[in-house]
Design goal:
- It is a single chain.
- It is globular and about 50 Å long.
- A hairpin with a 2-residue loop joins strand 1 and strand 2.
- By secondary structure, it is α+β, with helices and mostly antiparallel strands.
- It has two domains: 122 residues, Jelly Rolls, CATH 2.60.120.10; 102 residues, Arc Repressor Mutant, subunit A (Orthogonal Bundle), CATH 1.10.10.60.
- 44% of the residues lie in helices and 19% in strands.
- The longest helix has 18 residues.
Length: 233
């Protein structure tokens, strides 16, 4: 069974604990997974990869294979500076994380982990994101479940909705709709961690209903909200 804890920060979430069987899934964040005492094994597109730590780019289908093992799984939003730097370094395929970076995941404090990763990467070499996209994403992050949110965010940023979607795909490497679902999942997960019921969490995240929340959680994490709640409460 899954037995551990989630923690949330600005643009990141981290899970530390035991893994269990999970369905193949893909999510809109960058994931770095590392074994607590040994390496981990992942399967992606029929290929098994074993390493001390593995990077999974956004929307790459994968699943954990060593059920029961102790892991650290760090999720980073793709549009933030650290996420952009990792995408530039690692590309768009699942791959082992360089040993110098893998050591950062051994720290207990997730804030320290994020700071160590940031220090290792050349954050100054990347281009700044399009300011119109940044403004639109900031607006969407505040209310990801609002009807017509994408059109409203595009208009506020001086863009058409199709142009906003094009920019998101180009700069984030994922569809804006998938990024938006990830934001909704984050809001719902934080609600569960604060003591909300699954139905209340679904509403807080802006999902149409609890069934939509459940389908999205399973597609992006490989587990149901009920299973996830055991590590969030």
């Amino acid at each position: 069974m899954w037995a551990g804890r989630f923690e949330f920060g600005e643009g990141w979430a981290v899970y530390r604990g035991r893994t269990d069987v999970n369905a193949p899934h893909r999510h809109a964040a960058i994931q770095i997974a590392a074994g607590r005492d040994s390496g981990i094994a992942m399967r992606s597109d029929g290929v098994v990869l074993e390493a001390r730590a593995i990077v999974i780019p956004p929307m790459v289908r994968h699943e954990f294979l060593n059920a029961g093992g102790e892991v650290t799984a760090l999720y980073l939003e793709a549009e933030l500076p650290l996420g952009r730097a990792l995408r530039r370094l690692m590309g768009d395929k699942i791959a082992p994380l360089p040993e110098s970076l893998a050591r950062a995941l051994s720290t207990v404090d997730p804030q320290e982990t994020v700071a160590t990763l940031t220090a290792f990467l050349d954050m100054g070499a990347q281009e700044s994101p399009d300011p119109r996209l940044a403004a639109a994403l900031a607006g969407l992050r505040r209310s990801p479940g609002e009807p017509g949110a994408i059109s409203a965010a595009a208009k506020a940023a001086g863009l058409s909705a199709p142009r906003l979607r094009e920019l998101a795909r180009s700069e984030l490497g994922i569809a804006l709709s998938q990024w938006l679902l990830w934001q909704k999942l984050g809001r719902a997960s934080r609600a569960i961690a604060a003591g909300a019921s699954l139905a209340e969490a679904a509403a807080s995240g802006g999902f149409a209903d609890q069934a939509h929340f459940s389908r999205t959680m399973r597609r992006m994490f490989g587990v149901t909200p009920r299973v996830a709640a055991e590590t969030l409460n």
